[in-house]
Amino acid sequence: MAIGWTTNSTSPATRASGCATPAALTCAARVPPRALAALLPTRLRGTFPRALTIEGQIVMLKTHHCGSLRQEHVGQQVTVAGWVHNWRDQGGLVFLDLRDRSGVLQVAIDREKQPEAHALATQARSEWVLQIVGTVVRRPAGMENPNIATGEVELHASAVSVLNRAKTPPFYINRDDRVEESLRLRYRYLDLRRERMQRNLILRHRVIKFIRDFLDAEGFLEIETPILFKTTPEGARDYLVPSRVHPGKFYALPQSPQQLKQLLMVAGYERYFQIARCFRDEDQRGDRQPEFTQLDMEMSFVEREDVLQLIERMMIEIVETLTDRQLLAKPFPRLTYQEVMERFGSDKPDLRYDLAAIDVSEIATQSDFAVFKDAVTAGNPVKAIRVPGAGNQSGGQLRKFHSAYEERVRAVGGKGLGYLVLPAEAGGEVKGSVAKFFSPELQALLFEATQAQPGDVLFLLAEARPVIYGMIDVLRRSLAEEFNLADPNTMAFCWTLDFPLMEWNPDENRWDPSHHLFTAPVPEDEHLLDSAPGQVRGQQYDLVCNGYEVAGGSIRIHRQELQEKIFGLIGLDMVDAKERFGHMLEAFTYGAPPHGGIAPGIDRLVMLLAGEPNIREVIAFPKSQMAIDLMVSAPSEVYPEQLEELSIQLALADEAEPE
RNA sequence: GCGGUGGUGGUGUAGCCGGUUAACAUAUCGCCCUGUCAAGGCGAAGAUCGCGGGUUCGAGUCCCGUCCACCGCGCCA
Question: Which of A64, A264, A324, A338 is the most buried if burial means most Cβ atoms within 10 Å?
Fold first, then answer.
């Protein structure tokens, strides 16, 4: 049996490479393209080897990718294969737009010149799979199509063969129209054919490849950890997997590889990462799926600063190398937890716009407004949010404007919302619900403190923490949406630091770890663990971008006695703790190095880089909000024999009885 | 678990203060057409209005229940 390359090669460059992999379908290994545009399938370049032959039979069904053909190919005979993207039958001349992953190519089939090919082409319909042999031709002058990358050329077909026919798809593949999402999910394999999804998954691939290359160069090892692991009752609900071999016992899918990566540090691997799947059985959101992907990583002999700098460098390079998006600030701003809560009411503020809350308690307490005076007396803050230019509307509009936001504030527990309107011209009258309680001198102080300009509106809020935080957050988000303040092309990263280590849980009457129970306290605060646990700051850090938490991590506790102390504070008695985390405590007695890590969420990161509104758009096969895979109908019932083998009996409530 | 929005030919929408034959675009099918590229022209077919119940002389439309999708709250160490 003779195996070789065909001799009528079209590309000297690829002859030398002798590579059987279509070059255009691989991704540039070392030099990622500068811009997002370079990610488009239409930009993939097709240097392509000759067809592979075995005993003279061509086994590779294409010599070039559709989207790769350019003027330089004019005159060459090529074979392409792909899906019918669109077709236009003009009688004696049929145009087929043939699509493969690299892009779209117009094929012209002439009845007079190629009657057989033409006869087949007239039958072809959307999404049929065709193989077409033809000659690349420069398009006639004036017939170029600048909207597609191959628009200067077209293929004059000499032979058409139908590799497969296709039913009419349930929705348009060739348009970016909105389609009901349940339909997209049911036919996800068709949805994934669409350009938007291909672009997103290619970007996702590039981000992950970039991360692997970057961390490899930094001395990290990629190490896999088990998917079948052990349940840990804290945190989110676990997905459980019954054991056949051990009746009545269960594995749990990892909520994250947290414990394992710390054990890898004890094991001396020093720098670990993994593109890790994580599982949490909680209700869904646009940025939450039951299974999601983290870049899980951990480093030994590092301090907080080392982790922050490494991640920051990586994120900046990802954005600048793989996208056209602008970074709002670099280095990334660093904000303390207290600062973000007081100013933005959220530990993941969207910094693309200001709308920061400013504490005006000192001024408000001098006003005649009892609500503000009482608030300050009770130790609660009075805060102002400046809304630039919002005062330039009629009195009626303003009242409507204010009451709409007052309603939002009430929805999060606020009792009311005061407002002041600065006149557009100097000397004009200051209006608004609380204007009469502030003397002109106090008003001036207020405007100075908030740097208010003519025509601005000031919203004034007085409430106890943490209710006021929720009010600030909801005001910022909804104002930014109404006034279009968030530039979609900007990536506003920041670090949130100095979280409290513990939060008081009044229901359970104990302290809860605010991050997780392996987070180390800030060394200066360690002495407060006994006297004032609520004041202890943790060595925790979150990376925030555009209002989303895109990474969270901490420096860990590596000493057994400190770890035991934390267990005590959160109400875990040592018998319990040993049962659940005995392996960790024991490991820490065998020379655990100081270590820390972080875990960026890949789905959220790619979502932001792609400019998508939810993570389903960057996941190939996501689940619905009810955690259902609409394509395969998972979860599903199982056969009684399967349950029997697992020693499991169902105890369903009547209404949940399976049919 | 709670609240909100939506579900109408294959797809996307209109119809919603109840009233004759459920409208439009597109896709699909047929015929015509040799420079189209969101092709065009002519014609055809295609909908028990998510499902179940109720009110009514009469329900896509009103009411109740239910299912599904999405958004948010709770939840998510």
Answer: A64
